[in-house]
Write a structure and sequence with these properties.
The protein is of the alpha+beta class. The protein has one domain. The protein has 5 helices and 4 strands. It has a 4-stranded antiparallel beta sheet. A hairpin with a 2-residue loop joins β3 and β4. α3 packs antiparallel against α4 and α4 packs antiparallel against α5. The longest helix is centred in the first third of the chain and has 25 residues. The protein starts with 18 loop residues before the first helix and ends in a 15-residue tail after the last helix.
C-alpha cells in the first residue's frame, strides 16, 4: 500500500487555525463597545455625570473629538484634525490587522492581544467615522484625582497593548534544532 497513512481516526491531521476564534473575540469587543455606547447615549444626556460608587466611579456621557485621554481634542473640535485622526486610525487598524494575520498560530497571548486591540480600534474608528467623535462614559477617580473618562474600546486597546508588552518580554523558544556542542 502506498501513500500517506492516516491517523487512528481515519482523518488527516490538519491543525486548524485558531485565528477565527480570536476574530470572534474582536467581534465580541466591538459588539460590547457599540452596545454600551448606544445605551449611554440613550440613558444619559450629553455631559451628564451619574455617580455609581461615590468617590470612586461614575457613568458619564462625553464626546471625545481627540484621541486617548482627550489628547488633540481642542484642535480636532474645529474639524482640522478630525480627518487626520480618522486616517491615522485606519493606518493603525491596517498595521494591527497585518500583524494579526502574520502572527504564529501557537502564539495565543499575541493573538489575544492583537484581537483586543483590533476590536477596540474598530469600535472607536466607527464612532469617529459616523459621529465625528468617540463616546466616553466610564469615569474613575480617587479624592481629587480623576482619570480621564474612557469606554470599552479604550479598555480593550489598553489591555491588548499591555498583553503585547508582556508577550514581547517573554523568552522565545528556539525555532531550529538545538546547536551542537563542539567535540573535544
Amino acid at each position: 500500500m502506498t501513500g500517506n497513512p492516516l491517523p487512528a481516526g481515519g482523518q488527516p491531521s490538519a491543525r486548524r487555525s485558531p485565528k477565527p476564534a480570536f476574530l470572534l473575540l474582536s467581534i465580541a469587543v466591538l459588539a460590547l463597545d457599540q452596545w454600551s455606547k448606544w445605551w449611554i447615549e440613550r440613558s444619559l444626556p450629553l455631559h451628564a455625570n451619574e455617580p455609581v460608587i461615590p468617590g470612586f466611579f461614575h457613568l458619564s456621557h462625553l464626546r471625545n473629538t481627540g484621541v486617548a485621554f482627550g489628547l488633540f481634542a481642542a484642535s480636532a473640535a474645529g474639524g482640522g484634525n478630525s480627518m487626520v485622526l480618522l486616517l491615522l486610525g485606519l493606518v493603525a487598524l491596517a498595521v494591527v490587522g497585518f500583524y494579526f494575520w502574520r502572527a504564529p498560530h501557537e502564539s495565543r497571548l499575541l493573538l489575544t492581544a492583537l484581537s483586543l486591540v483590533l476590536g477596540g480600534a474598530v469600535g472607536n474608528l466607527l464612532d469617529r467615522l459616523f459621529q465625528g467623535a468617540v463616546t466616553d462614559f466610564l469615569g474613575f477617580y480617587l479624592g481629587s484625582y480623576r482619570w480621564p473618562d474612557f469606554n470599552i474600546a479604550d479598555s480593550a486597546i489598553s489591555i491588548g497593548l499591555g498583553l503585547l508588552l508582556v508577550d514581547s518580554l517573554r523568552p522565545r523558544r528556539a525555532s531550529g534544532p538545538a546547536p551542537r556542542a563542539p567535540s573535544a
